Amino acid sequence: MAERCDLMxxxxxxxxxMTGLSAGTPAAIIPTITERESNARRVVALGAGEIVLPMxxxxxxxxxxxxxxxxxxxRVLNEPGxxxxxxxxxxxxx
Length: 94
Hints:
This protein is an alpha/beta fold. The chain has a single domain (about 1-90), classed as Glycogen Phosphorylase B (Rossmann fold, 3-Layer(aba) Sandwich). It contains 4 helices and 5 strands. It has helices spanning about 15-25, 35-45, 65-80, 80-94; strands spanning about 10, 25-30, 50, 55, 60-65. A 3-stranded parallel beta sheet has the order 1-2-3, sandwiched between helices.
């Protein structure tokens, strides 16, 4: 499925990151714990995605800024560099 997607939205877990990278599919990542944030930052550094960090809300729950999420999703979908980086990484993994 990842190979047929234009974008993967996920939490930054190891399996999700590796699936996206091996498929060459860029990502918008919303990490839920520090390990996943580290994974997400590595994907961003590779040029294959964007990160949206959750914030603690007044209710004690985590929330994301919907405008930031929308902007980053649109950026990944519309700027060809993300797809190109994803493909380059997938090829190097093969």
